[in-house]
Amino acid sequence: MTHQTFSLGIVGAGQFAGQFAKLFNAHPFVSSVVVTDVLPERATELAEREHLAGTVPSFDDLLASDVDAVAIFTQRWTHGPLVVRALRAGKHVYSAVPMAISEDEIAAIIEAVRETGLTYMMGETSYYNPATVYARGRKAEGAFGRIFYAEGDYVHDMDLGFYAAYQYSGGEEWKSTASYPPMLYPTHSVGGVIGAIGSHAVSVSCIGVRDDRGDGVFDREVSMFDNDFSNATALFELDGGGSMRINEFRRVGYPSHLRESRFRYFGTEGSFEQLVANAVWQDKSGYEDVSELLETKPSMSADDPSLAGVDPALRDAFISGLAPVHDASRLPESLKRLPSGHEGSHHFLVDDFATAVATRTLPPVNAWEAARYTLPGIIAHRSALRGGERLSIPDFGDAPEQLGAPDDLDGQMAEAARD
């Protein structure tokens, strides 16, 4: 079977983009990768380090170029308008999370995707989180029965990496951006719930915890977002009944460097619970420790003697640094020998976007799915500002089965066989 290849432009050459540049550049469906950044030296350094095809002076220049797709890795509150501009310029779009920071921005993205027929994918790692993958499989088997309650936590303390990240990206004014409202970054928690059980949120009540550290972060006088919530907890009503509890914590005594996102799902016939170092499947007859299935392994050489007795179905997962529950066999060979990240999700993010563009099919986290991961947090933050008032959450509906391919883009991409 043959597929089309495409060229890609990376927008933003920060710390996160570098991990994906390597993977995109290695994917058999991607013919070339260029990069642009508002700091040209960062773009140049990334292009040289990862042997990319070159740099482009600006985002405007990238949109005016003949690249087929863009991957946006800019600061989290900038994504919505950049995505719409790229789609309207005729580019397929991969966007880091979140999708956007307002309902209007989300609506504009969905309208642009529908009108252009181009691919949009939000790069949400939790959809490929081993716990989410495991729960999605158990749901498909019917093992949960009816899932009536689920929990998603994104517990990432500021002291464990976020200060440095904001200082790197925010420059001298980094404290004004480090106050980004926790519920406007909800996809690492919501995505692991909705990505496993389906459905969508229809209403929410959220409580925000005002920060008291006093270091100028989460200070409304400093914050460009007028935000002083460092932690927030939301209870969502789900379509069709049931509920979802989401925690977004930025001041928390928890080892977020060991596990940032964690999930629980409760059904009428079975349940699953995850902590930092272990995970358990439970039903009415007892329980089973499934931690080993969900633990990502260090990348191993294909000829490592310790692989001699490993089940052949798991060899690719161990070689790629994935979890046993991941289906490493679906990945192109060129990605299997490269490091992944975020509990093995990066390989699948890149492969699903590349496959969607090359085959003109919808990716799993398409615009409609991304809206269901993102908009609940936006409304939850609004609820917190109103003292926990219960608010309705709009829904943009299910994704269409297939988007059309615009005539002016047909034939742009040459055919090439997957490795």
- CATH superfamily placement of the largest domain: Dihydrodipicolinate Reductase, domain 2
Runs in which pLDDT lies below 50 for 5 or more consecutive residues are 406-419
Q: Any guess at the CATH architecture of the largest domain?
A: 2-Layer Sandwich
Number of domains: 2
Mean pLDDT: 92
Spatial gap, N to C terminus: 11 Å
The first-level CATH class of the largest domain is given as: Alpha Beta
Give the biggest sheet: 9 strands, mixed
Strand content: 15-25%
Number of strands: 17
| CA-based gyration radius | 21 Å
**Strands side by side in the biggest sheet:** 15-14-13-12-8-11-10-9-16
Structural class: alpha/beta
Structure annotation, total helices: 14
CATH topology title of the largest domain: Dihydrodipicolinate Reductase, domain 2
Helix content: 25-40%
Tell me, what's the shape?
globular
